Write a sequence for this structure.
DNA sequence: GTCTATATAACGATAGAC
DNA sequence: GTCTATCGTTATATAGAC
């Protein structure tokens, strides 16, 4: 009958906060317990150990980033629209959860195994439809010649890098938090324009 | 008279290896000692504690990435040449030291203070000459309208992101190490072309 | 400068009462 | 399910002989 969150969920949310802030090695079980406002031994009761708890947080993070990207790439829509959707999706996702991409990318470099099982379980594959779409556009001379994976790498780089390197960017550009958020917001328009010009995109009439 | 590296230097090199691989929290003083092939207490003799040793490694890393970028930005050369030099500089630097950018970017997000003292000591500032150069090119209609900081963000994103997200990229694109290196090599040409088209760069005759 | 031995503290994890 | 108390381990760091 309680309207409060279940203990297990409270623990998970706290773990998400602490792991994303400090990483696996930097995170402390005690800090997770304090953040969740529960007893430390409850962490072990529900999740057995630190590795387990971490992996749940990690998996949830990957799920928030990767499948949606692949789904957009697989959509039967114009390339221009597709690029716009990716930029918007990442902008909105990381506005809510700014530490997520740095967390996932860093932890994946630390331990590839963690991700491999995830890829296997969820059938994570770059959609062939996207590859075909880009190659077709190239042959039709609608865009200039660029390998589809390179194009995707460019799109994702432009979206993620500023957020992954937040402190570095703020420091070099002397941005406070407001300036930084405005900078990101400005990119919602700049990135699609930049990419479309970069591939010399020509509209289909 | 010894041709071997001094102990202090051996420690530093080992610390660089271990810190860049595992991060500050994940690094173990014992592993650094083992890597350097010296006794663990020597670490404290030369560097007093872990924080100190880490900060030396961190500072050296920042020095390898930031001042050179600012120096290129400040050069009195054509914008096209400038972009090409940045791309080449980062490609060559990270071919030798692939874990460096992820290390610096991650640790900077963990602890801004570490970097602030560095910025202060080294007078790290985005050169006004670069800002002026871009704005002048925009007014002369040589490139399309884009804030100079946004353009720089794009350049750096395209160079660094694939290396920072190495494992993620390899996984999603199903690249082995050779494929990945070829992918990066291919970008030496693709990135400058993409950027110049992206800003609709027009050569000065 | 370099070693062995050890102090000290923190962390993940568990046992057991309720 | 939830708590207190505590175990066992591992980490950084230091003391002191050589």
């Amino acid at each position: 009958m309680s309207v409060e969150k279940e203990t297990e969920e409270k623990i998970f949310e706290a773990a998400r906060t602490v792991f994303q802030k400090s990483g696996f090695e930097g995170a402390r079980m005690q800090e997770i317990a304090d953040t969740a406002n529960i007893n430390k031994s409850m962490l072990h009761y529900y999740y057995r150990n630190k590795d387990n708890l971490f992996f749940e947080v990690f998996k949830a993070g990957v799920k928030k980033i990767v499948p949606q990207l692949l789904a957009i790439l697989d959509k039967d829509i114009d390339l221009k629209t597709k690029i716009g959707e990716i930029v918007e999706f990442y902008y909105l996702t990381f506005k809510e959860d700014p530490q997520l991409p740095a967390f996932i990318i860093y932890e994946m470099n630390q331990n590839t195994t963690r991700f491999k099982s995830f890829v296997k379980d969820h059938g994570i594959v770059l959609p062939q439809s996207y590859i075909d779409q880009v190659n077709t556009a190239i042959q039709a001379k609608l865009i200039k010649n660029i390998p589809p994976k390179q194009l995707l790498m460019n799109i994702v780089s432009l979206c993620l890098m500023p957020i992954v390197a937040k402190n570095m960017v703020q420091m070099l550009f002397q941005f406070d938090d407001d300036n930084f958020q405005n900078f990101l917001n400005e990119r919602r328009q700049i990135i699609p324009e930049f990419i479309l010009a970069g591939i010399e995109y020509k509209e289909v009439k």
